[in-house]
Amino acid sequence: AAGLYMICTMSKHAAEAKGCSDALFMDWEGFVAEATGANIFFVKDGEVHTPLADRFLNGITRQTIVQMLKDNGYTVHERRITPDELEGFQECWLTGTAAEGTAGGQIGDWHCQVGQITRDGAESHEALVRA
C-alpha cells in the first residue's frame, strides 16, 4: 500500500509539473485503469463506461457511484477501456474520497464536456455525503 501511495504521489507531482491536474494510469496490459487518487468514468451516447475494477482498488466511493447511476436508470459498463477509445467519449469524471465527483476537461489532446450524467453523478453523491 505504501508503494502504491508513493507511485501515485510521484505521478501526480510529475503531471502537475507539466501543467496538468492529474495523471491517468494504465494497467500492465495498457488498458485505462484510474487516476492517481481516483477512479475514472466516461460517457458515450448516454451510457457510462468505467474500467473493470479487478486491477485496482474498487473503492467504496466508486461502488456507490456505480450503484447510484444504475438506480437513476443509467446503463453502466464496467469493462476494459483502451486509450484510443478516449476520443469517442463525450464526458469524463473522477470519483474518490477526496475527488468526490470531479469533472474532467482534457486528457492529452482529447477534450470532454461536463454533461448531464457527470452532473447527475456528482450531485447525487454530494447529496448522499451531506445527508
Please provide a written account of the structure.
It is built from three helices and nine strands; from the N terminus they run αββββαβββββα. The termini are far apart. It is globular. The longest helix has 16 residues, at 2-17. It has helices at residues 2-17, 60-71, 116-130, and strands spanning 24-26, 32-35, 39-44, 47-51, 76-79, 91-96, 100-103, 106-107, 110-111. The strands form three sheets. The protein has a five-stranded mixed β-sheet, covered by helices on one side. A hairpin with a 2-residue loop joins strand 8 (106-107) and strand 9 (110-111). Helix content is 33%, strand content 27%. It is an alpha+beta fold and 131 residues long.
Molecular shape: globular
DSSP, total strands: 9
Q: What low-confidence regions span 5 or more consecutive residues with pLDDT below 50?
A: none
Strand order of the largest sheet: 5-4-3-6-7
What topology emerges from the helices and strands here?
Layout: H1 2-17, E1 24-26, E2 32-35, E3 39-44, E4 47-51, H2 60-71, E5 76-79, E6 91-96, E7 100-103, E8 106-107, E9 110-111, H3 116-130
Parallel strand pairs: 4-5
Antiparallel strand pairs: 1-2, 3-4, 3-6, 6-7, 8-9
Helix pairs in contact: 2-3
In short:
This protein is of the alpha+beta class and 131 residues long.
Attribute tags:
alpha+beta, 131 residues, 9 strands, two-stranded antiparallel ribbon
